[in-house]
Write a sequence for this structure.
């Protein structure tokens, strides 16, 4: 009887056919949602009268085969607006405006009576939407077999893409039309990487950057990825349709879901000006505010490290010994002979601490300090490392005291080789060890295939792991810089101790000749939309043959390396090269010493994905500005409009520019440093060499 | 050049054809090892001139397809003997003799030059052998795809078996000939259990008990299962061949192995007297000694519990509320209404503490004390329980104080619903919570399929997990009683805080009409060979219909329940029934109050698997003896020979026997208690009802 009544009520109140439209606050964007015949939810997105996303399906396949993308009715809708300002703990801007119009749709699936809500938020810079499964009587636990959300594009756009792979995001970026991906993808997938699990079909990773033939810029990603698997995008190169492709576990399930939870936001940033894509805070805005009681312990920082020496072919090693039959907990390292070229030894680290202290750096990263590296590519082994036992030649207490006396922090390193369960087993003790020994930040690493063996790097389980580590770290007041983790989705707003991530092809690939000159002109449009990247720039000695057998050459000029400190936003910035190279170029090194790592305000001056990026930023709480500009393999002239400076004053600008004979391949270390006076009505032209760049530091005169 | 030299040396010293024989100290057992044509290792076992194991293959398939069971040479052998006595922390005997002849064979695989050793230990009561992979230059990490060890039997033996299943060992035991297993197994596998992963072929679990047509008793199991997966046995019902079948992970790999490690021992206990099988300490002897510095905190104990009430259909529930949309860490239980029949509430637990204190029990188990039980069968959910947050009506501090004032311990309960990773995440805090609140023992539970989702209950990964929990618990001086874990292999010698396990069909199945009258006459020959079982006997009210809708009836008489405290060895013994039932039968309850849980000496008086067991034991450090005897569905007369008592003294024996009209089905509560005088030259006959039993307590007069 009760059930009959409920059905009766549904027929009274439910709108079977349904359509509703929402506009962005500035009216440039229009989102329309329609429940089509058969109760099929679709959406469409327009920008300044042009279609951006054609009619696109929404929904899921649940459990084994339930089609949860039709037979819906809309029970009711709620429309709201919001316009607030919030202050991040650190960031590109010290204040961020969060201004949107929202539509929340309450849907019921007529065959099962299961309920789902869809929440759309329309900002001036784009759209976010997510699915919300409220707690309900008829449904509690289910499996998401597929998410069916589509992003149907309007044409054969220019696309900046890497192939979908559940275990890695370290591919080089390819620029092609959508229709060409199919023919190109297999070759790109041959890239040798430590763990690969390619999607079985043609699919790409997000953030995905697209440019239409009529010069619209579109960026598709997700925000607030928690307790869900990462989204890739299936590509239909004929219909230009993209659709969600969630990372599975090895049982083929995408997400284990309990009602009372939500999906991540699906995000579409849109503009006819590429600079707006870089300036957009949409993804941060869609993440939850930080609820830490105290954030005073979270501090942006610049660091050096015992790191690059492991890549350049100079012989330095993570491992302490050549003996490889290591059993953690049993092997007595004090009885093993050192191989004589172990990088993380006390006296070598002290040199880095000295140099860091002398040059105003906050910290020194030390990799290879702990037991286990001899057997570090044993991907089947669960207990590879101890995270509390240093090698015999790494004196934790002595280094703690020494670093403290010099006002420098040591950055902890936890390479897990993806033996994740063993890492979790050690986590509490590892963090306690850090606190006891004066460490307040950790670089984590996830090289190789995951243990538990049912999981991939980008699946729900690992997503939960990364978030768990960051949360746990916050309890110990530890900052985290995670490498080889799932790419970020703005969670650094919620967890500001997640100070940076790698999650893309970083500078280490320069040591394998692996980065193209346009690489860093694309990353700000793709990977960086999710959050800061520990790209580790600052390589001055780009020709690695000087060290030995490695013939790799850097893909940039020296000044482009400087510019990256401004163009590649991160509150954690490394000066990655060897001390001796900074000592050889003290004038250029001055910029790295000077440049800020936290900002009041950011100005995107010029930008075109794949071609160039020019950004100016005001240092946080200081009247200092820094500008960086980079170009791809083509030389260019940057145009700097100094109107970002406060009016009525004169400023001194130090300019680090490519010399006229500079060229990334033939003459990368040729640069000119000059000083000029500017004010806020001035403009300036600066020449950039092929794969060159420039940097500026500006102070009030 | 070096390699050539090594090959040359091999040809000099290696015996290509090879055969060697070892005898047990009493010469009754003969083990012969032969390297057959093609370098194939085989072994054979004889007992008093009769074959027990026919020529049987040894070896592996490694990595994808390498046959590691041929092309071997024997480099050398080492023969040793040992005869020692050791003292367990607790046990059936306070001293155990460990006496064996050993042969260690050093083998090299000629095609790969990989090395493996095989160690045979021949005891008077049987054989143990294992594979040892020494550290070596050519081999470090590999995968065991199959272990090929055979146990080729001599005929169509009577077999006491449960089907191979990677996720459960809670099947009823079937008695049949080997040749009949094939036809019977599918039906047995229909048994409804919370998680099942049947082997794809006909295979059975160990400990496997066999009886030959000429009355030899043979028991096959394993000892010291660490960092390896559990062994099942493939059954060829035509050739009577058994062969190792290791539990895989869901990727199909059996074991991830690093050289420098060993396999568990494969054990074959043999005798022409069934009592010797029960008396055998071979499996304990093959486990490593305990290396705990202090074991004084490990104490055998008798306990009551808030437990049986959840099974009898009386309405009591683990869950606090009827609200099921629980999200651990978010759901605020203080705002939820109690369902009114939550078992683990403070005042109810106090009643148990009072009763335990009054009757000399050591402890009270409380299940259902912690947040999460409402959603406890959500097998896909990772965060089901908190192990540190009690329900609002369970006052941890008040109960700690109350229990302490009464001299009683509370036993912690950690049901994981097999969300093992989440349990590990909470483990440190959960153990700390225990220590902080006065708990020194925990019952763990693994109902349902395992998370990580690549794993089964009996695979290497979970084996490591159980061992990890026990080791971690020892650091907190916590005793562990694990339920639904892999069956034990004598590791309680090494980790004596592993006080008991379930790992078989226990008393809880009596509440589903699930146990056959012969069940407990078989378990001592099978499951109990690996270690003590928390069988939870002591049910006096066997007809459950008195409570409500449950129509189940106990499969024993009341006195058989008493006998189980002696026949089912465990240093942890529960009196599982409700308080009110013990109050109804105070005279019978007296035996449970009196019976010891730790022993100086055990005497197996009568035994036949599937039919009857009679055991006498001397209480540890006391001149008290207890005798228990049980029978299957057939009544019988037990013959007690009191020669186990010290000579020259008179003893008073209290006898708890089935009354003449007792019958497990029709009159289970009919018993007679009598007192007699005995001495060590006396014998006695006692009648046991169908599925009946008797118990005796003996003191010096």
């Amino acid at each position: 009887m009760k059930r009959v009544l409920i059905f009766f009520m549904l027929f009274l109140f439910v709108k079977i056919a349904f359509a509703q439209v929402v506009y962005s606050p500035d009216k440039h964007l229009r989102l329309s949602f329609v429940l089509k015949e058969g109760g099929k939810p679709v959406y469409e997105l327009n920008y300044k009268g042009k279609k951006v996303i054609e009619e696109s399906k929404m929904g899921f396949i649940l459990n084994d085969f339930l089609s949860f993308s039709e037979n819906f009715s809309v029970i009711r809708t709620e429309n709201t607006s919001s316009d607030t300002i919030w202050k991040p703990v650190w960031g590109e801007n010290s204040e961020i405006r969060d201004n949107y119009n929202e539509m929340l749709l309450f849907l019921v699936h007529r065959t099962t009576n299961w309920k789902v809500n869809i929440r759309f938020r329309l900002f001036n810079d784009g759209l976010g939407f997510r699915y919300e499964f409220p707690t309900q009587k008829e449904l509690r636990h289910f499996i998401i077999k597929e998410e069916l959300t589509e992003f149907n594009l309007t044409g054969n756009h220019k696309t900046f893409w890497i192939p979908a792979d559940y275990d890695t995001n370290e591919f080089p970026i390819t620029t092609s039309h959508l229709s060409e991906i199919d023919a190109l993808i297999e070759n790109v997938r041959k890239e040798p990487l430590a763990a690969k699990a390619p999607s079985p079909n043609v699919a790409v990773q997000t953030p995905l950057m697209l440019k239409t033939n009529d010069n619209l810029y579109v960026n598709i990603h997700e925000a607030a990825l928690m307790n869900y698997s990462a989204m890739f995008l299936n590509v239909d190169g004929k219909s230009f349709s993209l659709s969600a492709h969630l990372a599975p576990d090895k049982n083929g399930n995408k997400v284990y879901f309990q009602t009372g939870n939500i999906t991540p936001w699906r995000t579409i940033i849109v503009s006819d000006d590429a600079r707006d894509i870089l300036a957009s805070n949409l993804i941060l805005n869609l993440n939850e505010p930080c609820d830490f009681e105290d954030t005073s312990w979270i501090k942006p920082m610049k660091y050096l490290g015992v790191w690059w020496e492991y890549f350049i072919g100079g012989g330095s090693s993570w491992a302490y010994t050549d003996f490889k039959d290591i059993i953690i907990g049993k092997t007595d390292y004090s009885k093993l002979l050192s191989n004589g070229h172990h990088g993380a030894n006390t006296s070598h680290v002290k040199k880095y601490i000295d140099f860091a202290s002398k040059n105003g750096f906050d910290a020194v990263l030390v990799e290879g300090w702990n037991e286990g590296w001899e057997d570090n590519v044993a991907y089947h082994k669960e207990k590879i490392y101890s995270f509390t036992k240093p090698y015999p030649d790494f004196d934790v207490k002595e280094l703690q005291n020494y670093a403290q006396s010099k006002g420098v922090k040591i950055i902890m390193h936890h390479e897990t080789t993806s033996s994740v369960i063993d890492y979790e087993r050690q986590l509490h003790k590892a963090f306690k060890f850090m606190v006891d020994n004066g460490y307040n930040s950790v670089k984590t690493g996830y090289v190789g295939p995951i243990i538990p063996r049912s999981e991939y790097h980008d699946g729900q389980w690992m997503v939960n792991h990364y978030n768990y580590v960051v949360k746990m770290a916050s309890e110990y007041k530890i900052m985290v810089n995670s490498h080889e983790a799932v790419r970020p989705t703005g969670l650094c707003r919620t967890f500001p101790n997640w100070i940076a991530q790698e999650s893309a092809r970083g500078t280490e690939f320069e040591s394998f000749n692996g980065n193209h000159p346009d690489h860093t002109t694309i990353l700000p449009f793709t990977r960086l939309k999710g959050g800061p990247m520990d790209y580790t720039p600052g390589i001055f000695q780009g020709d690695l043959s000087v060290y030995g057998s490695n013939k790799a050459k850097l893909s940039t000029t020296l000044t482009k390396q400087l510019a990256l400190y401004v163009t590649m936003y991160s509150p954690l910035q490394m000066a990655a090269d060897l001390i001796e190279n900074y000592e050889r170029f003290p004038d250029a090194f001055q910029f790295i010493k000077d440049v800020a790592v936290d900002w009041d305000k950011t100005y995107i001056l010029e930008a075109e994905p794949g071609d160039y990026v020019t950004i100016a930023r005001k240092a946080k709480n200081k009247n200092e500005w820094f500008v960086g500009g980079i170009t791809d393999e083509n030389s260019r002239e940057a145009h700097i409009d100094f109107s970002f400076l406060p009016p009525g004053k004169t400023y001194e600008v130090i300019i680090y520019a490519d010399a006229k004979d500079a060229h990334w391949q033939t003459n990368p270390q040729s640069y000119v440093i000059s000083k000029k006076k500017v004010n806020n009505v001035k403009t300036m032209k600066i020449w950039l060499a092929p794969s060159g760049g420039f940097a500026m530091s500006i102070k009030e005169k």
